[in-house]
Amino acid sequence: MKVSGLNLGLINGEKKYSSEVKLVTVKNIGGFSMVKIAFVTLVATALAFSFWPATDLQAAASDKPLASKPKVDAFDQAAMDAVKAKLESNLTGLPVDEIKPSPVPSLFEITSGSDIYYVTKDGNHLISGRLLSIKNGIVDLTQQSKQKASARLSPYRKSIVDKIKDEDTFIYRALNEKHRINVFVDVDCGYCRKLHKEIPELNDMGVTVRYLAYPRAGLSSSSAAKLISAFCADDKNSVINDAFASRPIPPKSCKNPVAYQYSLVRKFGINGTPNIIFANGDLWPGYLDAKGTLKEIEKRGL
Q1: Which uninterrupted H or E stretch holds 159?
Q2: What pTM was computed for the model?
Q3: Which residues span the domain enclosing 96?
Q4: Per the count of CB atoms within 10 A, which of 27, 185, 231, 234 is most buried?
């Protein structure tokens, strides 16, 4: 289950922010889960929750120093264990990968896949949104947590992706290969189509591109059928080119890697397309043009 916040606004030109956040009340009555959603308005000068586009907050998330790490004592650990058990019992669609103290003393921070949530210490209220520190400028603490969680997954992503054979991908080879990237794509994704047009320039820069399958609507969707048909074609790159161009493709079926690659998505912390995985396992969650991709590769020394 997912809940979401709304936009944060500037009040009277001052650093005061109003945010509508979805607050989930979690109860379990008679063995049945009940989720009661209420809308609350938070106005604060020290923090706010909101969904701002990641691009609006990247600088704030990456350049400002992190606050000191909250300490964990025995009482907190017992409370976190109890809250984790309660959430996993009452909200079966929300697996808790990690729970820890948040920068706000009354809340714990939860990592679930690539998502960050906040929960009250009694486990009765779950908040989805962005936690911003505005003590010294705007610092997106939620984005920082997402970046740290993603970085921890990099070695795991690399170990899995390195085992995927070229023949189980759609591969666009650079003649003078210097770098490789893997990209999770959906043929019906607009930004995937935009990235697909960057392939010639990427190849000219020495970047080989491998596509992995992520049909966002699921394995029974028309997008999955198109990916499977392309994988099973005699000239699969030509067929997926047609799919990206919205041209009809002949339906085919065979043994294919679509379901396996789809199963990796949550494990990798991916929740959209395109998603780029660099050679060291780092994840870029979204579209990058050719020059931006090469810049990120070189920044990592790959």
Answers
A1: helix 141-161
A2: 0.69
A3: 9-152
A4: 185
